[in-house]
Amino acid sequence: MSKKTAPLLLKTAALLSNLGDRLKLARLRRKLTAKQVAERAGISVMTLRSLETVSTQHFFSIRVFKRCE
After folding, report:
1. Structural domain range at position 49
2. Which of 10, 36, 41, 56 could form a disulfide with 32 if both were Cys (CB 3.0 to 4.6 A apart)?
3. How far is it, in rounded angstroms, from Cα 34 to Cα 26?
4. CA distance 38 to 61
5. Which pLDDT belongs to residue 65?
6. Number of domains in the chain
7. Considering the domain boundaries, does residue 68 fall inside one?
8. Rounded Cα–Cα distance for residues 63 and 27 (Å)
9. Distance (Å, rounded) from C-alpha 60 to C-alpha 26?
10. Can you spell out the DSSP letters for 10-67?
């Protein structure tokens, strides 16, 4: 049985996308690797990558796909 999640509003998706961009920019400006930041934050590198690469298009495509089901 799959879990169903409520779709994000476009405004919320845009905020998350902006957050991801800012996280990555801050990391790169400080010349830190993803591994270093993930260790300091107590999260996995994959979680950090997911946070950094959130895109509004991704959320929009999920919403469209779910409505087609």
Report:
1. 20-61
2. 36
3. 11
4. 28
5. 46
6. 1
7. no
8. 30
9. 26
10. HHHHHHHHHHHHHHHHHHHHTT--HHHHHHHHTS-HHHHHHHHT--HHHHHHHHHHHH
pLDDT tens track for 10-69: 788 788 888 889 999 999 999 999 999 999 999 999 989 988 887 555 555 444 444 544
- 65/46 Cα distance (integer angstroms): 24
Amino acid found at 42 = G
Residue 51 maps to a domain:
yes
Write out the two tokens for 26: 């801050």
Task: Report if residue 57 sits inside a domain.
Answer: yes
Exposure class string for 26-41: b at 16+ Cβ within 10 A, else e: ebeeeeeebeebbeee
On whether residue 33 sits in a domain, the answer given is yes
